[in-house]
Amino acid sequence: MPYPLRFAPIYFKKVWGGRRFSSIIGRAIPDGPIGESWEVSIHPHGHSIVANGVDAGVKLSEVIEVAPADILGKRVLAQSGSKFPLLVKYIDAEDALSVQVHPDDAYGAAHAGELGKTEMWYVLHAEPGSCLIAGLERGVTREQFQQALAGGGDPGALLHRIPVATGDSIFIPAGRIHAIMPGLTILEIQQNSDTTYRLYDWGRLGLDGQPRELHVEQALAVSDWTDYAPNSSVDAPVAITGGTSTTLARCQYFVVEKLDLHGKYSSATDGETFIVVNCVNGGGLLTWAGGDEQVKLGDSLLLPAALGEYSLIPDGNASFVISYVP
Fold first, then answer.
1. Are the beta carbons of 95 and 15 closer than 8 angstroms?
2. Which CATH superfamily includes the segment(s) 238-324?
3. For residue 299, how far is the Cα from the chain centroid?
4. Are 272 and 300 in contact (CB under 8 A)?
5. Which H, E and C letters describe 260-312, residue by residue?
6. Is 185 helix (H, G, I), strand (E, B) or coil?
7. Residue 222 above 80 pLDDT?
8. 166/157 Cα distance (integer angstroms)
């Protein structure tokens, strides 16, 4: 019988990483600056292992191989084959990430051996005064940007900054120049890709004491030079039984919704797509025909397409981000 799958987090040390996975979501994390926790992934750079139930210890891809339609859903299987199409992670930015950009599918397949990377960010926690970089200031040209980069120069004045607080979100399509800035802990939902082209890295050294590699030529080629001053607006909340639902992002690769709940919310997987559930505030109980699971802040669960009816019962007020394939 299908059941909600938990996975062992996959942690990555980053020069810009911090320790907030411990303080914000109560994780026991390895020593050092931990920048990423991959929660649901079949990418070769980090492959999720099931941590609960009868499939504990088994790779997600192997679980999918046994019953691909039951896990992924008929629509996802038709679109992506038996390859899990998303990558869900948490990011902790103690320092700024590089100014970077991701390719689209065509460029990624031709030059990187994998699809492109469109993503969205949900701000799980923001220190006061935090901001994101997304897109260009109005009127900036590729030529101006190249001139600013010449000789290792700082292009910061040409980049669009957006003040953000806990609970904000923004969509980052392939081609959008961007950077996560200090003081932010973020839930990222993205295509199953790990291709990043760095334009600028603030003049710092990596964990090995050497300058980190830049990819200026590729980044300039894939950047959208008409992407001026994007905003972080989302749809208005819609009333649902138990609370409200807000669509945070919608594209060909994923739909992301936030459920703000004060009472029981019931729904069902439709057999067409899986659903990933991330608890982003409070906690509660996830129930389905075969049992129940306690869910707390920071937890990530994969609901198989064949799971059927399920409910989220919050402890008081709680918020959950759900993502699926449209």
1. yes
2. Jelly Rolls (2.60.120.10)
3. 14
4. no
5. EECCCEEEECCCCCCEEEEEEECEEEEEECCEEEEEECCCEEEECCCCCEEEE
6. strand
7. yes
8. 25
What six digits make up the tokens of 20? 């907030």
Residues annotated catalytic, as ranges: 198
Provide the phi-psi class of 291: left if phi over 0, else alpha when psi is between -120 and 50, else beta: left
Residue-wise pLDDT for 81-133, tens only, equals: 999 999 999 999 999 999 999 999 999 999 999 999 999 999 999 999 999 99
Judge contact between 181 and 129, C-beta under 8 A.
no
Sign (positive or negative) of CA dihedral 32, 36, 40, 43: negative
Burial of 314 (0-12, 13-18, 19+ CB in 10 A): buried
Question: Could you report the per-residue pLDDT of 131-158, keeping only the tens digit for each?
Answer: 999 999 999 999 999 999 987 789 999 9
Residues in CB range of 136: below 8 A, 6 or more apart: 145, 158, 159, 160, 177, 225, 227, 228, 229
On the 0-12 / 13-18 / 19+ scale of CB atoms within 10 A, 323 is buried
In CATH terms, the fold of domain 10-222 is: Jelly Rolls (2.60.120)
Q: Tell me how far apart the alpha carbons of residues 170 and 188 are, in angstroms, rounded to a whole number.
A: 10
Pairing mode of beta strands 275-281, 318-324? antiparallel
277 contacts 301 by C-beta, under 8 angstroms:
yes
| In the chain, where the domains are located | 10-222, 238-324
Tokens at residue 260, please? 């703000």
d(CA 75, CA 253): 12
The CA distance from 119 to 80, in Å, is 17
Residue 104 Ramachandran class (φ > 0 left, ψ -120 to 50 alpha, else beta): beta
